[in-house]
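Comment thread on ticket #2218

A.B. wrote:
> Attaching the input chain for the structure job we discussed in standup.
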Amino acid sequence: MDYNVVGVRFKKAGKIYYFDPGELELNIGEGVIVETARGIEYGKVVVGPLRVDENEVVAPLKKVIRKATSEDQQVLEVNKEKEKRAFQICMEKIAQHELPMKLVGVEQTFDGNKIIFYFTAEGRIDFRELVKDLAAVFRTRIELRQIGVRDEAKMIGGLGCCGRELCCATWLTDFASVSIKMAKEQNLSLNPAKISGVCGRLMCCLKYENEVYEAAKEGFPSMGSWVVTPDGEGKVVGSNIFRHRVSVELKESKLVKEYPREEVVPRAEQVDSSQGCQQENQEPYGEENV
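C.D. wrote:
> Ran it. Output below, let me know if you need it in another format.
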């Protein structure tokens, strides 16, 4: 079964959620008012309309309530001003309670029924008294949500070492798992200062080209393995997948020389092939040789 849907995003670089447009004719970039688990929210159409399989939709599929009006835009602007005020007040309350936490951002739902405070901290924080104080000031539902350092960078934004805006703050919707092995595969410096993002974690862009490097290295001997070259046996000390060359430290001379990939053969393959040739050249025992 297929559904006619539109994709709606509530934050810049946020996740895309599907909604039923009903009879509304919606275009990409238009503002819409929808009902979510948090209540009535304002979002922008970024996908569709299109038909998707029911497996791609989280049931039940909710409908778009209406197109956003100029009055809705005004509500949005008022909420942003309220968020700035809420941020300052929360900072003051955190200081009063001497809580070891860092306030990152504030978000008020479109209908004003809830204010969400995002923060980072080293461990668990007892913020029950802080919630009581905030609820007394704003007289609405208060939620304090602890987030990680990658989410903090996504909310605050900034520039990466490449000189461009952070991927997570501009277009990256989900954080992929990144490992130090990816840096090794790409022959990058393992200096944490050079391969870490502003969040202090390994840079997300290490993931982008990792599959290409893994595929390109399939035909190359591994680091430290013994190989046979035109100049004799040696140990692999480096490789350049772009130039298709392998650096080998020769066993006899201890010199490091660079060879085209096709001229370097793993030592095990060389031994096996030579043994095969010897067996083929041997004459079988028979009555003539006895």
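A.B. wrote:
> Thanks. Noting for the ticket: The helical segments are 70-97, 128-138, 149-156, 167-170, 180-185, 192-195, 210-216, 267-281.
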